[in-house]
Amino acid sequence: MNILHPPSPADPTVVITRVAEHQWHALEDDQVVGRGDATHRPDGRLFISIDSWHEAVFRLLAASMLTELPRPVYTVVDEADTDQTASWLLAGFSIARRERGYLLPTDPRTTGLATVSPPAGVTIIPAGRAEEAPLRALDRTLRAEIGATVGWQTMPAEVIRLPKGDTVVDPSKYAVAAQGSDYVGLLRLAAVTRQPRIGLLAVRADHRRRGIARALLAHTLTTLHHGGTPAAWAEVNEANSAATALLETAGATLTSHNLELVYA
Predict the structure, then answer these.
(1) pTM for this entry
(2) Is 10 helix (H, G, I), strand (E, B) or coil?
(3) Which regions form coiled coils (predicted)?
(4) Is the N or the C terminus of the chain less surrounded, counting Cβ atoms within 10 Å?
């Protein structure tokens, strides 16, 4: 959203029109003065965004969209943008969680991960080489553990939940930690335009605190470095102290604080 001017009570009437299933326009004298968009993220949650010139137009768009869309509805804002945050809160949203955005160097000389090895008996299977059946079984186990503990509301939007419990869309994106033939941890790396993004790093509950997550991270970042990629991106729930500590001790730079807001 881009609010440049305060509302003016003398402005002509603004008409809100739903121009497509997930798109709204604010029209003033047949000119578009604001736009609203709704998008279903891969996990099924509905996120909206609004781009407007006047705060009054933002309020009209928000009211119209929230009346027509099913709840809950989410949006993400930069916590540093206090005006934008205030506008969403006034529209009825509340803070669901705070998220930190990190830029991770891949050079082992910077990350300090050059000497990191998996614990005894554990091997790292590079992305694209894991067997699909045990990978999918591990994924189901991890997701069941997440659902029973911290809950899905703490996970990034790209951690996909699909109807029949089969959530591994592209097995080639996963590096896996294995103890013998037993898969015990995984790291999902999504390829995006500017830099790769760590979408999920998780270890089975009965194998945590052994250094497996650190070994998976070291393997993935070093592989990216050897391929000529200087940095990767990761987003972490601020409440996840273990994940933030892992990234920060690997030389990650905190670059953003985002708020995930919900209209329930």
Answers:
(1) 0.79
(2) coil
(3) none
(4) C
